[in-house]
Amino acid sequence: MTIARRTLLRSGLAGALGAVLPVPGLRNLAFAETGPARPIFIVVHLRGGCDGLNLISPATDPVFIEARVSELRVPADGPDPGYALANGPDPKIDFRLHAQAGGLAELYKAGNLAFVHAVGLTDGTRSHFVATDMIEHGVADAAGLNHASTGWLARALGGSSATALIAASASGTPSNDLAGLASALAVPDLGGGLGLPGGEPVQTMLHRLYASDNGKVADAGRRALASLGTVDAHIARDPQQKPLPYQPANGVKYDGSGEFERPLRTAAQLIKMEIGLETATVDIGGWDTHEYQSGRFKGQVTKLASGLAAFWNDLAAYHDRMIVVTISEFGRRLRSNRSAGTDHGRAGVMAVLGGKVRGGKIYGAWPGLAPEALDEGVDLKVATDYRQVLSELIDARAGHRVEGVFPGYRYPGPLGLVG
How many domains does the chain have? Predict the structure, then answer.
């Protein structure tokens, strides 16, 4: 595996490395391991603006039926009905999960998966970049970005370990949720081992360069080298030191899209190394469905459901330590557009999965879809601030205080997601 250039920049290593080729070999840099088992927080970003109303539809709401073409809503009957979800937010409405989300339906029925509907940013932006920036930095509006230079996950973790990889992005670059956390790494794939550009000579040079310096760059360098070495030392190898293929537990096969299941597999591998990982971020893009949404959305839901189900079953031994949450920058408009798609909207859906999650329920208030209830007359209104969901999960993760994680936000208390 090659370490991404932006990863090196964020770790303070790029200037010393220069233009060199990636080769494996960091095992002699492995530092001491951490002690007791830690809670594990996985954040899954649905990049592009997932249509929550197409993922979980108020299937029997006459306003919804009138507003959308049939291909962009989940039916309650007919040849391809969605999965009925017990304990919806409005007892008068039959809420249905997309028909391609069978893996999620099973987790919901088993009581391990919960949803929060009508959730999102309180700011009305419809810009992917601005909304993503706000969510990753844990703020409510653009003004908040002026006061939050670090990511909300970095603040929730409260610091870095000099001896363990406590945070990772299973992607090519570190997520901004982790901005400001010196030891966070981007690790998209471990199939070929973990290599440092330049091999042994550069490795030795960097180790000596940062060993005696007390500056911030040197500290970041030491942390990055320690994290890389720790991971590399725990990759299983054959007698010739070639990395062995990862073997999921319980007969699980990550056989879907590499775009999503490969990083989930990487996250699972990092968790099983028992090197102190406390949080990981995973991305699944492709949710920006302005046109021809029906077929594309089915494919996206299939990837999401099969990937999370495989990840859950692979990590059965870790269920009570795990909390997985999905989040998207915003939802989509109530009414479908003329291109058989949906445009940028407001409220969406978050999913929460874990061994201690009070699943089998859709949480949050349901504002309804009547014209007078819509945001600006066109969108499902945000009834639950995304920060309330994340605050509850942070608090449940290990009894951490949430003050300061979301600047200027007063946590109103839990929705009851975690028991």
Answer: 1
